[in-house]
Specification:
Blueprint (H helix, E strand, L loop, with lengths): L2 E9 L2 E6 L8 H15 L3 E8 L3 E8 L6 E4 L9 H7 L22 E2 L11 H9 L5 H12 L2 H8 L1
Antiparallel strand pairs: 1-2, 1-3, 3-4, 4-5, 5-6
Helix pairs in contact: 4-5
């Protein structure tokens, strides 16, 4: 299973970023601590974690240094039943759609879950994020590219993906 994850934080009018390995996280607190470590190192109040797994789903996690719980958005809440990392991220707010009954047909449309408002101040509204999440033919990496472009770190994200 291929997973891309990176932490981003504003640095004045630019952004910093670092690809991270989330293979050893066991709880949402591990993710939060990792993000707060970057916030401290980079002297910023805001960090974003972008996660994309197997071109099937994505997640955005936001931590403000105010010490509040992380805000999490999953493009499909059903993945918490199939992917250990999604299960960990779901701890942030009891996310996760019910597991669908097994069927011979194709998997139904994604069911976005979580705090869709977490990027509004960065230029991506809740409605737009939900629309991108369920839009046919839109890959998770494409959605994260939109998030990065609106937020101002598209070039940084692109350089990590090369």
């Amino acid at each position: 299973m291929s997973t891309f994850a990176a932490v981003f934080a504003p640095n004045g009018k630019t952004w910093r970023g670092s690809e991270v390995d989330l293979g050893d996280v066991d709880a949402i607190d591990d993710v939060t601590d990792l993000m707060l470590d970057f916030a401290t190192e980079w002297a910023t109040d805001l960090t974003l974690l972008l996660v994309e797994a197997d071109d099937e789903w994505f997640a955005v996690v936001r931590v403000d240094e105010s010490g509040t719980d992380p805000k999490v958005y999953l493009s499909d809440g059903r993945v918490v039943h199939d992917h250990p990392l999604a299960e960990v991220l779901s701890e942030a707010g009891g996310l996760g759609a019910p597991q669908p009954a097994e069927s011979a047909g194709a998997r139904p449309d994604p069911r976005p879950d979580g705090d869709g408002d977490l990027l509004t101040d960065l230029g991506v509204t809740e409605d737009e994020l939900a629309s991108l999440s369920v839009g046919g033919g839109v890959l998770p990496s494409d959605v994260l590219a939109v998030v990065a472009e609106r937020s101002g770190f598209a070039d940084l994200l692109d350089s990590m993906r090369l």
